[in-house]
Amino acid sequence: MTGKPSKPSSRKYKKDRTTEVKQTVLPLPKSERQRVELFAEISFKIRQSLQLKEILRTIVTEVQQVLQADRVLIYQVLADGTGTPISESVLPAYPAILGMEFPEEVFPTEYQQLYAKGRVRSVADVRDPSAEVADCLLEFVEQFGVKAKLIVPILHSLSVHPPRKSPPKNAIWGLLIAHQCDRPRKWAEFELELMQQLADQISIALAQGELWGQLEEVVAERTAELQAANSSLQQEIIDRKQVEIALRQSEEQLRLITNALPVLIAYVDDRECYQFNNQAYTDWLGKSLTAIHGSSMREVWGEDCYPRMQPHINNALAGNIVTYENEIQLHDGTTRSVSINYIPHIDNDDRISGFFALTSDISDRKAIERMKDEFISVVSHELRTPLTSLHSALKILVTGRLGVLTKDGQQFLEIADENTERLVRLVNSVLDLQRIESGAVTMEKQACTATELMIQAVDTMQAMAQQQEITLVNQPLDIQLWVDADYIVQALTNLISNAIKFSSPGGNVWLIVQRPEQPPTPPPNGRKSTKSKASKVSKSPSLPIEILFQVRDEGQGIPANKLETIFERFQQVDSSDSRKKGGTGLGLTICRKIIEQHGGKIWVDSTLGVGSTFSFTLPVIDN
Ligand code: ADP
Fold first, then answer.
1. Cross-strand partners of 329
2. Is any atom of ligand 1 closer than 6 Å to the C-beta of 611?
3. In angstroms, what CA-CA distances link 473 with 138, 470, 494, 502?
4. What is the 378 CA–ligand 1 centroid distance (Å)?
5. Which of 588, 593, 602 to mutate to test the pocket of ligand 1 (most atoms within 8 A of CB)?
6. Pocket-testing residue among 550, 571, 572, ligand 1, by greatest number of atoms within 8 A of Cβ
7. Chain segment 80-98, per-residue pLDDT in tens
8. Rounded to the nearest whole angstrom, what is the distance from the C-alpha of residue 586 to the centroid of ligand 1?
9. In angstroms, what CA-CA distances link 466 with 492, 509, 512?
10. Which end of the chain is more exposed for a tag (fewer CB within 10 A), N or C?
11. Residue ranges of the chain that CATH labels 3.30.565.10
């Protein structure tokens, strides 16, 4: 192929030259005004329409009419070098070539490069050798009756492309071609100008279309993103609403339940401020829920009551379960006895973030207990006086100083004397216990040594031990104590007396004292060992140093299931013990009360048939 495109023409339209062309070229073009109008109309359509196909169709139709050409077409260059007319306006007398595939030979790469530089080709007669139309091309175009042609490139080079998809500069997109088929034709300069301007408009339309496509793509992407975000947001809102409803319902239910209970229920944070409290608080204290919520315990309970609560609050905030009794005054002026439980709240970080507080009214129970205590006290006192005189009279009669009875008579008298003695012990024990429990007696604590107490207890029990042929082994230590000596000796003698009673003749009973390095840890509940502890659940956060007393025997032992209960009132391993051993079933209860009043604990370890060890602790004076 040897054809060469013609020189690029000036893009600027010149009026004088047009006039000149008009005189020499046939058919005469439409007036310049028409051309300007056409250009304006096409530009307007391009701006109005984003449909490239429509724009191209308008251009070929209008150009064909204005130039009075036989065929005007837009040829698109494809990536592989071939191409195809994608829009065409042709007179019916000539064959349509729309959609026809042009082989690469008719439009080789070198032509493409020249067109890409903006050259135009104006051929007045394809057969004129000076036109240098390659033979193969001539053959190709003559199929469609082409005698003259005008070709301008449509470039893809306008800078409207967004940077990300910018095509190479001056790439050729296609050609705007006019054919004259009935005769050769010399194309006028202004016709070239018009074609070029329209080719530029097509470039703009292409760029616009591409930009629009990209915009649509971006908008579609963003819309999809927004829709996805929106729907997940909507789902989140629905989920949250459902969670809120569920929370509200469960909170309402919790309120309903807690408000229905006749006890104070609260949650207190680690700053001692109420974070939850039920309706009973309002009923009892006459303060509104909002007044209590967020307020400190000191504010709510006032200076009369709060100081009694404070050590227990500290104990709960140190992580201990606390149970205690208290007297509180209600808003109507009445005083109520209450039982209070504090349960520490340990959060996920193992931090004590507060405690749950449960306060129940035990005034009725307390009143009954008081009545019962008073009754026991009165009855015991009333019994004691006649019993004492009865006992003294029997003692005198047993000596025989008032006359000698028959052998049977003497035996009955001795039984009566023994039982009266037991009755006296029982009445005394009941009175003792009642006095300690009611708080009528206070432990009068004073400094003394463990040795003093142990010697006193052993001396008291020596006679009984000898009578039972038991050896008492005392192992005292000089440790300073701050206790009510009489009561501790009473506890010790009680334990030694039991040890003697439940041992066989020839046995040993040890009285031991030791100052452990660490406070002894009583066994946990539900353990398999026979070890037992009879003390309250409450445990001091920082245990003081304690002394440990032990009374150990080699007697009959105590079954595992009785290790706890024998510290309860009137509880005996064998109910006949009270008759056989002269016991009352109150000794250990009194012991426990005495030890607890001193801040200690008491428990027993025992193995049946081997022996028992009763242990109790007492806090010592820190030297
Ligand atoms: P009692 O006056 O009956 O001895 P306690 O309260 O002192 O009352 O003791 C309660 C029961 O505990 C006794 O009846 C006995 O069954 C049992 N018990 C107490 N100490 C011992 C011991 N050292 N060995 C065996 N059993 C004992």
1. 335
2. no
3. 140, 10, 16, 16
4. 27
5. 588
6. 572
7. 878 899 999 999 999 999 9
8. 9
9. 17, 12, 19
10. C
11. 442-620
Atom of ligand 1 nearest to the CA of 614: 23
Residue 526 has what pLDDT?
Answer: 32
Task: Copy the structure tokens of residue 440.
Answer: 């009528």
Instruction: Using DSSP bridges, classify how beta strands 508-514 and 471-475 pair: parallel, antiparallel or unpaired.
Output: parallel
Q: Is the dihedral of CA 73, 78, 84, 87 positive or negative?
A: negative
- Taken in order 263, 269, 272, 277, is the CA torsion positive or negative? negative
pLDDT, position 112: 80
Ligand 1 atom nearest to CA at 574: 16
Architecture of domain 262-361: 2-Layer Sandwich (3.30)
Cis peptide bond N-terminal to 27, omega within 30: yes
CA 530 to centroid of ligand 1, rounded, Å: 16
Q: Answer whether 544's CB lies under 8 Å from 619's CB.
A: yes
Residue 37: what pLDDT?
75
Strands (E), 418-475: 446-449, 471-475
Distance 493 CA to ligand 1 centre (A): 13
Find out whether the beta carbon of 502 lies less than 6 Å from any atom of ligand 1: yes
User: Quick one: CATH architecture of 30-215?
Assistant: 2-Layer Sandwich (3.30)
Indicate whether residue 588 lines ligand 1 (CB < 6 A).
yes
Kindly state if the Cβ of 461 falls inside 6 Å of ligand 1.
no
Q: Residue whose CA is closest, atom 20 of ligand 1?
A: 498
Q: Is the CB of 573 under 6 A from ligand 1?
A: yes
DSSP at 620: B
Mean pLDDT, the chain, integer: 83
pLDDT tens for each residue of 271-284: 999 999 999 999 99
State whether residue 46 is helix, strand or coil. Answer: helix
- Binned at pLDDT 50, 70 and 90, residue 175 comes out as very high
Which residues contact residue 569 at a Cβ distance below 8 angstroms, ignoring those fewer than 6 apart?
433, 585, 586, 589
Lookup: tokens for 513: 């004292």
**Ligand 1 touching residue 498 (CB < 6 A):** yes
Q: Is pLDDT of 533 > 60? A: no
How does pLDDT run across 281-336, given as a tens digit for each residue?
A: 999 999 998 899 999 999 999 998 999 999 999 999 999 999 999 999 999 999 99
Asked if 219 and 188 touch (Cβ cutoff 8 Å), the reply is no
Candidates 3.40.50.10190, 3.30.565.10, 3.40.1740.10, 2.40.50.140; CATH matching 442-620: 3.30.565.10
Q: Please tell me whether residue 274 adopts helix, strand or coil conformation.
A: strand
Tell me: the pLDDT tens digits for 200-220? 888 887 877 777 778 888 888
Average pLDDT over residues 105-112: 79
